[in-house]
Every structure is written in structure tokens, then in C-alpha cells.
Amino acid sequence: MAYWILSLGWVLFYSSHTFLASLKIKRKIHAILGKGYIWYRLVYSLFASLLFLAIFLYAGLILIFIGYFLYIPSLSSLIHLLGLLAYLPFGIDYEEKKLMEIYGAEYREYRSKVPPLIPRIIK
Questions:
Q1: CA dihedral sign of residues 27, 15, 111, 62
Q2: Nearest-angstrom CA–CA distance, 58 and 7
Q3: Contact 94/18 with Cβ under 8 angstroms?
Q4: Radius of gyration for the alpha carbons in the chain, expressed in angstroms and rounded
Q5: Other C-beta atoms within 10 Å of 43: how many?
Q6: Shortest CA distance to 57 belongs to which of 84, 38, 86?
Q7: What is the number of H-type helices and E-type strands within the chain?
Q8: How far apart are CA 103 and CA 11, in angstroms?
Q9: Nearest one of 61, 69, 121, 65 to 92, comparing CA atoms
Q10: Tens of each residue's pLDDT in the chain, 123 residues
Q11: What percentage of the chain's residues is helix, strand, coil (to nearest 5)?
Q12: In terms of Cα–Cα distance, which of 66, 52, 28, 34 is closest to 109?
């Protein structure tokens, strides 16, 4: 397998994920769908409610990719792991800015109690 194709695939995946998660895209979807936007919002809200479990999702992704690398220690599994680890700091920052804009003070309070990636053992 050409590893540059794999690397390019991950770059395209993460950049498209960031682009599609932006609020500007959601506003454009609202303009296109008009009254049908409520159904988009319903489906999106069901999945967005999982964002409050972000710490578990991010940590779970890291553990899955580490497990994959340990199970199949190849260059491609290393590229997957490094791609995820390189993207997460940007993705988490981008996601938190978006959540602050959407939820405001409620999310700031949540954020002060729950770290984005590694859980606090001692309060």
C-alpha cells in the first residue's frame, strides 16, 4: 500500500470533518433546507448530545488506535495513530469553541469541571 495515499486520506478526512462541523456550514444548510431544517437539527441534536461525553469519545478513540497499533504494529497503523494524535488538539480546540458559542455559560461551567481528554482523579 502506498503510505502517502493513506496519509492523504487521513488529512482529507480530518479537514473535511472540521469543515462540515463548522457553524457556517450549518447556517448554509438551514438556508437551503428552510422548514425542513428542523429534521436536520433533530438528527444532529441527537448526535450533538453525545458531545458532552467528549472526554470518553476522545479517550476511546486514542485507546482504539493504540490497541490497533499494538495488535498490528505496521507503518499504516502507526500513520493512523499519529494522524489522530496530530488532529485531536486542533479538533478539541475547534469543538470547544463551537460548543462555547452554542451553549455559552452552561458549557463554560461544564468545561471548568470536566477536562477535554484526561479525567481528573482528584478534585
A1: positive
A2: 20
A3: yes
A4: 17
A5: 9
A6: 84
A7: 6, 0
A8: 29
A9: 61
A10: 577 777 777 777 777 767 766 667 777 777 887 777 666 655 655 555 555 455 667 777 888 899 989 999 999 899 989 999 998 888 888 878 888 888 888 888 877 777 767 666 555
A11: 85, 0, 15
A12: 52
Name, in order, each residue with C-beta under 8 angstroms of 86's C-beta and a sequence gap of 6 or more.
Answer: none
- Three cell numbers, residue 117: 481528554
d(CA 80, CA 76): 6
Burial of 24 (0-12, 13-18, 19+ CB in 10 A): exposed
